[in-house]
Amino acid sequence: MATDTLTKPVIDGSIPKTKVFKNFIDGEWVESACGQTFEDRNPADTREVVATFQRSNKEDVDAAVDAAKAAFAKWRLVPAPRRAEMVFRAAEILIDRKEDHARDMTREMGKVLAETRGDVQEAIDAAYYNAGEGRRLFGPTVPSELPNKFAMAVRQPIGVCGMITPWNFPMAISSWKLLPAVVCGNTCVIKPAQDTPLSTFNLVRALTDAGIPKGVINVVTGYGPEAGTPLLEHTAVRAISFTGSSAVGKIIGTTSAKTFKHCSLELGGKNPMIVLDDANLELAIEGGLWGAFGTTGQRCTATSRIIVQKGVYRKFIDQFVARAKKIKVGNGLDETVEMGPAVNENQLKTDLKYIEIGKDEGAKMVTGGNRLDKGDYQHGWFLEPTVFIDVDPKMRIAQEEIFGPVVSIIPCDDLEDAIAIANGIEYGLSSSLYTKDVNKAFSAVRDLEAGITYINAPTIGAEVHLPFGGTKATGNGHREGGIGAIDFYTEWKSVYVDYSDKLQKAQIDRAE
Ligand code: UN1
Questions:
Q1: Which of 111, 125, 169 to mutate to test the pocket of ligand 1 (most atoms within 8 A of CB)?
Q2: Are both 197 and 170 inside the same structural domain?
Q3: Catalytic residue status for 266
Q4: CA distance 485 to 268
Q5: Same domain, 481 and 366
Q6: N or C end of the chain: smaller count of CB under 10 Å?
């Protein structure tokens, strides 16, 4: 399709299926101010350019923020149930387009089709959930201290919200941010990760097709320093939501503070899965493989440390490693493939670097470790599933987030020892325990320092209606998902209505 079709507004129609995307600002397709573009290539076969996107800078961001600011004046006055109906319709549209969007996502970021279908489904789930919230947005109504006085608190939108999203859950995580924000009456400028803008466009297309008016959601593509930083620094942007590394999160938090922006950070993880002697071993092995190698280990919640009690340690390793060796790696569009490539060359280099670090530290690598680059693999960023055993909890491979298919297995004496190891890291996102002992399960729920704990399931698999996020270096106390997101995207206003017809002084006028 010719690129000039992209200059048409799309409120009445849909984003044309094309290989060149412009920025989406105020319902119009706009070229970047500098006229430059960048390519989104398929990590399973880098000869394929999935699409081309605008390389944006401050000028583009300023235009998008202006559009969002203007749209906010009207959008905040649309009743929340009406706003929510549009989000509900977007869910229905996404159901129709699920397979297409899953295929686009596999081509742009590499994870296997079953998982990209799950990613689109997560956006559908988030749409239904947030649509429901549009009929709630509850606030407290309380009895006043004074007679003939009414007291309540209402949620109000914040204004223009900036969103900077990662590539690993390109539609789900964009939906976690955009959907509660618009239901609450905010307007948005989103800068998707440069590896995966297409999935964000697919989501935004469903929302505009569902009736979300122009200017309410604007998309500006490009690189962090060029397009992310101006969004972060813009004084008219009142909230920033970021998902990514703790190193970048620290900069985002510090910069946001300078203009008193609301700031939600979802950052790194080094998620432990504990396997006790009494666990259902087969279940734990299956869960560990899924947690460690699902999404090629590229989840913030990936199971990157497996802490196994000594009684079952050898047995667990033997079976886990035998199964890891059989994982079929390849192009995620092939339904028989279980693990796709790394998202890009840099991520693959990071994975390989950590494999070297692990070997140098003296951890025992029992399978994997090699790049796959022969035959069908030659044009992609493929790596073997890699397992280190007898890992010391203080080693770098057991402390630092790798974001690849590299797992460290660590022996432990008992639950107490396991929890000390599990908590002995800077992060606190997800955690898990396999046991049949209910007392141990609830002790772990209490003591594991993490925002999420699973019992008899690996560290991945969060659902959209519960809070998602973590403690320590994983974030700054906010949560996505569920009511936590509604809390983030609204500001409280307390309202007092005095119908006594006289001046009543709170805390002073008391009938003794
Ligand atoms: C992430 O880990 O980066 O909980 C997001 C899960 C998914 C979302 C993961 N629902 O595994």
A1: 169
A2: yes
A3: yes
A4: 19
A5: no
A6: C
